[in-house]
């Protein structure tokens, strides 16, 4: 969806809204594939300024396709602003997703075990762990298969590749939903929301996922 929001110069600025995060002090940061850029707004919707996306994401020609630019944005207490493209850059391995931090750091993870997934949403938990919504496409009927992935950056070694925990998202009665919104609402609950086309009908689905301890120092997921 593309909208026009007012800037300080009174001009309307088109912005394709793909993801948002709220840093401190209270502002709204929105990543857009147009540019690409990260636009900052006041909480009453006034455009303040544009920020540069991480250098590897700044060239649209480096994207895997025109629709696979920056997709997800979140704030981490140590790493700062985190940005992820929908699919790995064209020069990267298709099954390796990368999180780009504002401080120049990167974290990566492999999806070979489930396929060539696309990133739809990113959230940072209160303990600093990161959660991603991603989906694969069913080879039989083309429906979307959603997953929740949790990454703890504290467990990363010298290699940018990180171990993750993964759970398939299953909603009773919902066979094809494009979940792309995620936020933590309590220590063990996260809220997810889908686009407005579900099983070929016009509606959105909100779901609650509970995060449970799989073992000491780790996260588990249950829908």
UniProtKB/TrEMBL annotation:
Domain spans labelled Phytase-like: 29-144
Region described as Disordered: 1-23
Xref: InterPro entries: Phytase-like_dom
One Pfam short name: Phytase-like
Protein name: Phytase-like domain-containing protein
Lineage start: Bacteria, Pseudomonadati, Pseudomonadota, Alphaproteobacteria, Rhodobacterales
């Amino acid at each position: 969806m593309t909208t026009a929001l007012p800037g300080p110069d009174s001009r309307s600025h088109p912005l394709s809204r793909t993801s948002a995060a709220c840093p401190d002090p209270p502002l709204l940061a929105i990543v857009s594939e147009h540019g690409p850029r990260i636009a900052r707004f006041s909480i009453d919707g006034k455009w303040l300024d544009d920020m540069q996306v991480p250098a590897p994401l700044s060239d649209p020609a480096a994207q895997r396709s025109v629709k696979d630019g920056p997709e997800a944005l979140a704030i981490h207490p140590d790493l700062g602003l985190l940005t992820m493209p929908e699919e790995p850059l064209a020069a990267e391995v298709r099954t390796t997703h990368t999180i780009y931090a504002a401080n120049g750091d990167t974290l990566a993870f492999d999806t070979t075990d489930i396929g060539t997934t696309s990133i739809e949403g990113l959230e940072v938990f209160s303990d600093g762990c990161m959660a991603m919504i991603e989906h694969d496409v069913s080879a039989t009927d083309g429906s979307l298969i959603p997953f929740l992935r949790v990454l703890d950056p504290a467990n990363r070694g010298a290699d940018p590749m990180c171990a993750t925990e993964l759970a398939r998202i299953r909603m009773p009665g919902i066979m094809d939903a494009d979940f792309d919104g995620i936020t933590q609402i309590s220590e063990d609950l996260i809220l997810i929301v889908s686009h407005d086309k579900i099983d070929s009908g016009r509606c959105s689905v909100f779901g609650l996922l509970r995060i449970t301890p799989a073992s000491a120092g780790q996260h588990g997921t249950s829908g």
